[in-house]
Specification:
By secondary structure, this protein is α+β, with helices and mostly antiparallel strands. Helix content is 51%, strand content 12%. The protein has 3 domains: 161 residues, no CATH class; 125 residues, no CATH class; 57 residues, no CATH class. The protein has a 5-stranded mixed sheet with strand order 7-6-5-8-9. A hairpin with a 5-residue loop joins strand 1 and strand 2.
């Protein structure tokens, strides 16, 4: 297909999809009328949809919600059936029409509001733009009470968000854990800003070297790496205790690792990690290393108070100025990690005499088996 035909087919496909969504919505309403969910022993329509069609619970709830909304809004349903608007636009219109079902708003004004939003949707405004317009409708219908209504609506929205806050995680068996989360938008804004600080080009270049990151907007990969940094560097002493102990992960490795032998270590959770990762984590906040012999006896346990104080870090920065790797690395001290010259698990103390500043990149390298910090 040429460019013109491709564009027409995509637009036509969108219209057909809208019509199918409307047909599906009417069918779902008919299923409720016939009480098919009850006959099948399902607790609600969304569950029946999930069993009948094989879609996820999330998709089933979305379809059931749209069906209920379109049943009460004939003009919006008709426009969707004709493919004039998308199901996403129809849902936004229905949501805001639901907010207008109030004794202060006459049936005539509700109809005018639906007509207005429909016209804007047909005119090309997407769901986000329609949502903004829907919020503005109240300012016209009830100028005096608009602020109070908005405040109450936001309060109710935030309460719903808190109740729906979720996080799920699952290990894929390939060294990655995948997850989904739902958190209040205000908290997400703060979290995003924290991750942006860790994923900022300046910080990434300091860790991975010049030329490693030349984009101003962090990519999904950079944000994921920043999330990992955020977890690994969070001070567990700031967390509530679990079983009388702070939420600190214990990394367990055989004594052979001290001798430079390549051998897997593991976390207390059973997750296996490489010796390089073990040695790297042993220097970071939130991880306590445990060295064990062949009989699984603990030979040395990293002490809990091993973090450098702000005063110690400032003193080290003032004295060393930059990364002390012998390759000549000049990453500023304030972007460096404070490394224990004498490993903490071997009795090293947290003081300036045994503290060396290394940038994140070289800090990782010096923990690799056989690496000599006097060589690049």
């Amino acid at each position: 297909m040429d460019a013109t035909t491709t564009t027409r087919v995509v637009a036509l496909g969108a219209r057909v999809a809208a019509g199918v969504a409307e047909l599906e919505a009417r069918s779902i309403n008919q299923a409720e009328t016939l009480d098919l969910p009850g006959v099948a022993g399902c607790r609600n329509t969304a569950r029946w949809l999930r069993v009948t069609t094989g879609v996820t619970g999330r998709t089933a709830r979305t379809k059931a919600r749209l069906a209920k909304c379109l049943a009460d809004l004939e003009p919006t349903r008709t426009a969707t059936a004709r493919g004039e608007i998308h199901a996403e636009q129809a849902q936004v219109i229905a949501d805001h029409m639901g907010l207008l079902e109030d004794e202060k708003v006459s049936t005539y004004d509700q109809a005018r509001a639906e007509t207005f939003l429909l016209a804007e949707a047909v005119g090309g405004h997407d769901a986000d733009a329609l949502a903004t317009m829907g919020h503005a409708i109240w300012e016209r219908l009830d100028p005096e009470g608009a602020d109070e209504r908005e405040a109450k609506a936001l309060q109710a929205q935030e309460e719903r968000a808190r109740k729906k806050t979720r996080i799920t995680m699952g290990d894929d068996g390939q060294g990655l854990t995948h997850g989904r989360f739902s958190i209040p938008t205000a908290a997400a804004d703060a979290f995003r800003k924290q991750l942006h600080a860790l994923a900022a080009p300046k910080h990434v270049r300091a860790e991975h070297g010049a030329g490693s990151y030349d984009w101003q907007k962090p990519s999904a990969e950079r944000m994921g790496q920043a999330f990992t940094d955020w977890i690994e560097t969070y001070d567990p002493t700031q967390l509530p205790k679990i079983g009388g102990l702070t939420a600190t992960v214990i990394a367990i490795g055989d004594y052979d690792l001290l001798q430079g032998k390549l051998k897997a270590a593991q976390l207390e959770t059973g997750t296996k990690i490489s010796p390089t990762e073990y040695l790297r984590l042993a220097c970071g906040a939130g991880i306590i290393p445990a060295w064990m012999n062949a009989n699984a006896e603990v030979l040395a346990l990293g002490r809990k108070h091993r973090f450098h104080t702000p005063a110690q870090r400032l003193a080290a920065i003032a004295e060393q100025r930059h990364c002390q790797h012998h390759s000549g690395c000049d990453v500023p001290g304030y972007l460096c990690h404070a490394h224990h010259t004498i490993p903490w698990a071997q009795g090293g103390t947290t003081d300036l005499r045994t503290t060396t500043l290394y940038c994140p990149y070289h800090h990782t390298r010096i923990h690799q088996p056989g690496h000599d910090p006097t060589r690049t």
